[in-house]
Amino acid sequence: MRKVCVVGTGYVGLVTGACFADLGNEVVCLDIDTAKIDRLRAGSMPIYEPGLEPLVRRNVSKGRLRFATDYAEAVRDADYCFIAVNTPTVEGAGADMTYVESAAGSIAQHVTRDVIIINKSTMPVGSGDLVSEIARRNLRDPRHRIAVVSNPEFLREGSAVKDFLQPDRVVLGSYDQAAARRVGELYVALRAPIVITDLYTAEMIKYASNAFLATKISFINEMARICDQLGADVKEVAAGMGYDKRIGRDFLNAGLGFGGSCFPKDVKALAHMAGEAGLHPQLLEAVMKINEDQRRVLVDKLVAELGGEERLRGMTIAALGLAFKDNTDDMREAPSIDIIRWLTAAGATVRAFDPVADETARRVLPAEGVIYCGDEFEAATGADAIIVLTEWKRFLDLDLERLRAAMRDPERGAVFVDGRNLFDPEEMARLGFRYQGIGRGNGKRRAALFGPEFD
Q1: How far is CA 406 from the centre of its chain?
Q2: CA atoms within 13 A on the CB side of 30
Q3: What's the CA gap between 415 and 393, in Å, rounded?
Q4: What is the spatial distance between Cα 29 and Cα 11, in angstroms, rounded to a whole number?
Q5: Closest listed residue to residue 171, CA positions, set 195, 205, 149, 204
Q6: Residue 355: which of 390, 400, 385 has the closest Cα?
């Protein structure tokens, strides 16, 4: 049984630790946040992630997973030490490496045998050298040998457990190829391709992957704006594009842009690194700008349907979904934050509902002008308009006639702006909604289907 220490119990660290324990290893998850460790020891999850709680509980009960706040306890017998701490963005879009540096130094001070330090957090290219230097300076017993391996994570919030256990690939980078292969042994049971390369290349693979996916999202959102003006339907455009194997179907869903803890931070960080190297990352800057502008598209559509921004004052808007995506309570960089701030600043009241993110939302949304509701129908009660901000699958099963009936003026004022393109425009019109999607072509689309007399 291999002994593994994971430093950090956020999305990456907790999922990594629980999954390695489930693969039969002895794992200690370490965090200096005593309250978080107390919650975990009591069986309470600090994050919402489908499948994670039963995974943690099962491996705790089998004695393969435990939690600690003391480095000496966690690191003492470890063969592998994963660093999975936060690397927040600082001014200028660089990464704050304070937590990484602290973890690397503390690990080195408490090792009692040869150990491999694995960088699991997303870190700037060159961070492996930094961790190696810090570990070398802090190593108390020079007889012990420390190797550093970069093992970037590719976990999606909402499907992180599945992504860990069924990865597309495992990336490992190190100057010490033997150490990289030893880390690879931890993943052999997953039967996934293992890519072994040098440190810098492994670190770059993570940034390049996320930047490319973010680019696909911004691309289809740019196409959506053009579709709205020319009368095409972006969902059909994306479907037609996706049959081309060179393009693929994934990440071609037009909407409100990307959010969360990875894409915004990683694209900014990569652009920052490029700038520091004397380059001008024009594509990355365009990706970020398109994403920023996309959030305003929904508000502009809502304002147009209501007859002008001044009409927002005194109106009630039902917001369905708050988290940056479905199956998570994460509000980091969520489009809902900017959109709801704009609406409340204009004098509107927002009646908001999210299946799991209410508690998180209260910490980041305006204290005034936002009412949290228990379900979609409570949110729609007395509303002048409904907006969809998160692609929760449960919204697809809504009784839409009941939803419309709950609004203030369902016969004349059932404005519905679908920021995630969950619904069919023709069906929504049949149900009596004044429906707007993202890139669905609006009136020009109806004219293209049925002739100009329907425009």
Answers
A1: 32
A2: 25
A3: 21
A4: 12
A5: 195
A6: 390
Q: Does this model's pTM top 0.70?
A: yes
43 C-beta neighbours (distance < 10 Å), count:
11
Across the chain, what does the average pLDDT equal?
Answer: 95
Phi, psi of 237 (to 5 degrees): -60, -45
Q: Name the residue among 26, 268, 250, 33 with its Cα closest to residue 156.
A: 250
Residue 328 · residue 356 · CB < 8 Å: yes
* Tens digit of each residue's pLDDT (9 = 90 or more) over 125-163: 999 999 999 999 999 988 899 999 999 999 999 999 999
Measuring CA to CA, how many Å separate 102 from each of 14, 67, 74, 119? 19, 19, 15, 13
- Largest Cα span, the chain: 84
Quick one: pLDDT at residue 413? 82
Per the CB < 8 A criterion, the answer to whether 230 and 445 are in contact is: no
Sign of CA dihedral 390, 392, 394, 396: positive
pLDDT tens profile 160-181: 999 999 999 999 999 999 999 9
Helix (H) and strand (E) counts for the chain?
18, 14
User: The tokens of 384 are what?
Assistant: 């002048």
Looking at residue 454, its pLDDT comes to 45
- The label of the residue with tokens 């705790």 reads 60
Percent of the chain predicted with pLDDT > 70: 96
H or E element that contains 54: helix 52-61
Task: Answer yes or no: are the C-beta atoms of 379 and 352 closer than 8 Å.
Answer: yes
Look at residue 284 in the predicted model and tell me its pLDDT: 98
- Residue in the block written with tokens 């907790």: 14
| List of long-range contacts for 40-48, beta carbons under 8 Å, 24+ apart | 40/9, 40/14, 40/67, 41/67, 45/14, 46/9, 46/14, 47/10, 47/11, 47/14, 47/329, 47/330, 48/328, 48/329, 48/356, 48/357
- pLDDT score at 455: 46
Residues recognised as catalytic: 262
Contact 371, 349 (CB under 8 A): yes
Burial of 137 (0-12, 13-18, 19+ CB in 10 A): exposed
Tell me the three-class secondary structure of 382-440, residue by residue.
CCCEEEECCCCHHHHHCCHHHHHHCCCCCCCCCEEEECCCCCCHHHHHHCCCEEECCCC
**Res. 277: pLDDT tops 80:** yes
Q: Are 421 and 429 in contact (CB under 8 A)?
A: no
